[in-house]
Amino acid sequence: MSARILDGKATAAAIKQELSERVAALKAAGHTTGLGTILVGNDPGSAWYVGGKHKDCAEVGIESIRVDLPEETTQDELLAKVKELNENPDCTGYIVQLPLPKHIDQDVILEAMDPAKDADGLHPMNLGRLVANVNRPMTSPLPCTPLGCVDLLARHDIDLNGKHVLVVGRGVTIGRPVGLLLTRRNINATVTLAHTGTTNLDELLAQADVVIAAAGSAHMIKTAKPGAILLDVGVSRVDGKVTGDIDPALYESASWVSPNPGGVGPMTRAMLLNNVVEAAERNAAK
Ligand SMILES: Nc1nc2c(c(=O)[nH]1)N[C@@H](CN(C=O)c1ccc(C(=O)N[C@@H](CCC(=O)O)C(=O)O)cc1)CN2
Predict the structure, then answer these.
(1) Which amino acid positions bind NADP(+), per UniProt (predicted)?
(2) Which residues contact 215 (CB under 8 A, 6 or more apart)?
(3) What is the chain's Cα-based Rg?
(4) What integer pLDDT is reported at residue 94 of this predicted model?
(5) 266 CA from centroid of ligand 1 (Å)
(6) What average pLDDT does the segment 119-148 reach?
């Protein structure tokens, strides 16, 4: 048996097509949609991701505002830029590219953002809303990679109701929020959150129907239940190449696989655009 591929690239392209129609409708009604990005420092990976976000905006008709700052930018200088975007009416939503240089406290920066403009869904108020709201449709932005995982599965008609999902990784962008999303009543999965301190990982992997690997440790997942659905969202660079958390040898016995690269990454980009368009639609409805 060989797994079917959850094709993030093709799915993201379809989502972008849908979003361009919504952006055009907003424009026709006199509303601009604009994404801002703040990049601090010279990390080539981060610069590539930010470049991709602006390319995506151009494709779907979203205006974009790019703020690139040097590595030695102080926390106060960065806070001033955050304030500028909070107050800029052309900016519907924005992101601060992570990770930030070590001398800057990420939590302080995320908290200073206007929650209504938080296109990444990482402001503590938006994460708190995800914690608090189990039943109703969400009306605040959700973190892009978790949303990308859920949407990728839904668009391949994979029902998670009653499934046991093992999340490996406890980071704020993926591991922690994805479990909250998956246990909402409309999805109804049962979630176990494992991490690098978990001592019985192979035992948990042997039981899981779905594995979402987001630990950022190259090929650390070496076993899975036959027929499992595997989503690889971990990113490491080995010899300069993007490498996921899941050993590709497992693809043979899985039912569905979202590889890395080519799986959830393009969905993360599409969900960012989705968050900006939803924010613009909320503004237009006011
Ligand atoms: N503010 C944020 N910072 C970071 C986030 C985030 O969601 N918000 N996530 C990651 C980086 N990221 C987006 O910012 C991101 C990562 C990967 C991809 C992607 O499309 N990956 C490709 C492979 C790319 C490659 O070859 O390097 C794929 O999976 O096919 C998009 C966005 C950390 N920072």
Answers:
(1) 169-171, 235
(2) 168, 169, 175, 195, 196, 234, 245
(3) 19
(4) 98
(5) 8
(6) 97
Asked if 159 and 105 sit in the same domain, the reply is no
CATH number at residue 98: 3.40.50.10860
Q: What are 207's two structure tokens?
A: 């039981």
Task: Give how many domains the chain has, as a whole number.
Answer: 2
Name 237's bridge partners.
Answer: 242
The binding-site residues of ligand 1, defined as CB within 6 angstroms of any ligand atom, are 49, 95-98, 120, 144-145, 173, 242, 260-263, 265-266, 268-269
Q: Would you mind telling me the total number of residues written for the chain in this entry? A: 286
8 Å CB contact between 222 and 179: no
Domain identity same for 98 and 148: no
Q: How far is the CA of 265 from the centre of ligand 1 (A)?
A: 6
pLDDT beyond 80 at 1: no
| 188 plus 257 within the same structural domain | yes
Return phi, psi of residue 117, to 5°: -105, 5
d(CA 70, CA 94): 19
Residue 273 lies inside a defined structural domain of this protein = no
Task: Assign 227 to helix, strand or coil.
Answer: coil
Quick one: average pLDDT of 5-16?
97
Residues 6+ apart with CB under 8 A from 230: 3, 210, 211, 213, 221, 224, 246, 250, 251, 254, 256, 257, 258
Q: What does pLDDT average to over the chain?
A: 97
Give pLDDT, residue 127: 98
Domain containing residue 231: CATH number = 3.40.50.720
pTM for the full predicted model: 0.97
| Residue nearest atom 13 in ligand 1 by C-alpha distance | 49
Where in the sequence is the domain holding 164, given as residue range(s)?
143-266
- Catalytic machinery residues: 53, 97, 120
pLDDT, average across residues 251-261:
95
Cα 1 to ligand 1 centre (Å): 30
Residue numbers belonging to the annotated binding site: 169-171, 235
